[in-house]
Design a protein that fits this description.
Layout lengths: L1 E23 L9 E9 L4 E5 L5 E7 L3 E14 L31 H10 L7 H14 L1 E2 L10 H7 L1 E2 L1 H14 L4 E10 L3 E12 L3 E6 L4 E2 L4 E7 L2 H4 L2 E7 L3 E12 L2
Parallel strand pairs: 6-7
Antiparallel strand pairs: 1-4, 1-5, 1-13, 1-14, 2-5, 3-4, 8-9, 8-12, 9-10, 10-11
């Protein structure tokens, strides 16, 4: 499946910003099952490219002149192969051992409440794709999809207590569960296409299974990831995988708007 993608992120400020530095994770990962045929990032300043510890292609944007708006436009075409039960085969760029994905973060910290939820959902643990799907089902039953209740700082324990959240919250709770069992898991950011020309920035998860390796699961949609999912970045949580992240001096109040358009062509 070929995806034609247009993604615009625009920041506006109520007063001038004197300095901005941003890390952009807006380039598809060079995984075996997806290939960028063409890809371009347009930004209001020069971009410095590098590959981070997770194997993500990143760009650094630095603006040191006064500005009241930042617009970042991404356009490109990517070819994505289907995945069988979400299994990601082949080598991939990564400089971290598997154990690094067992380490909890502030957003994915487990506690006894999460541990008990996980035991109830998967009493025999996580060893098979069916177990992974059972955990996803339990999370979606417990945490209803509802935008506006949480934000990017909401941790897994708060998500479980609130019972509402969005895709990133489902992923953080999923990761808290699997890491609590000592199973490697990682956060995935990217794009998701559905029928009816609906497209969006999205988040899902990878989990390492003994007989399958990395298996990619869309918790929110209760399905294994496949050729409708374009992978931009993987990391331990949203903070390290977010498409755009940065700091600034000045600017007053900030507003952000995001537009994603995807045109899919079957091969």
């Amino acid at each position: 499946m070929k995806h034609l993608i247009k993604h615009t992120t625009r920041y506006r400020y109520t007063s001038p910003v004197s300095y901005t530095i941003q890390t952009l994770r807006l380039t598809p990962r060079p995984d075996d099952h997806q290939r960028a045929l063409r890809w371009h990032i347009a930004a209001p300043g020069p971009l410095e490219e590098q590959v981070d510890a997770y194997g993500n292609v990143t760009h650094t944007l630095v603006l040191n002149k006064p500005h009241s708006e930042i617009e970042i436009r991404v356009t490109g075409q990517i070819e994505i192969d289907p995945l069988r039960d979400g299994q990601i085969h082949g080598g991939e760029e990564s400089r971290l051992p598997l154990h690094a994905y067992c380490v909890p973060t502030r957003l994915t910290q487990s506690d006894e409440t999460i541990a008990q939820f996980c035991r109830d959902a998967v009493p025999d643990g996580l060893t098979r794709p069916a177990d992974v799907m059972a955990l996803a089902e339990a999370i979606c039953e417990r945490v209803a999809y509802e935008p506006g209740i949480t934000d990017v700082t909401t941790a897994a324990g708060e998500v479980l207590a609130l019972g509402h959240g969005v895709c990133q919250d489902h992923v953080h709770l999923f990761l808290a569960c699997v890491r609590g069992l000592g199973v490697p898991g990682r956060y995935v950011s990217g794009y998701y296409y559905t029928a009816g020309d609906v497209a969006a920035s999205h988040a899902w998860a990878d989990i390492w299974l003994p007989d399958a390796g990395w298996t990619s699961l869309d918790i929110t949609n209760r399905a294994f990831a496949s050729d409708r999912h374009c992978r931009l970045a993987v990391a331990r949580d949203y903070d390290s995988a977010s498409p755009v992240r940065g700091v600034r001096n000045g600017g007053g109040e900030e507003s952000m708007s995001v537009s994603v358009q995807i045109d899919v062509r079957q091969q």
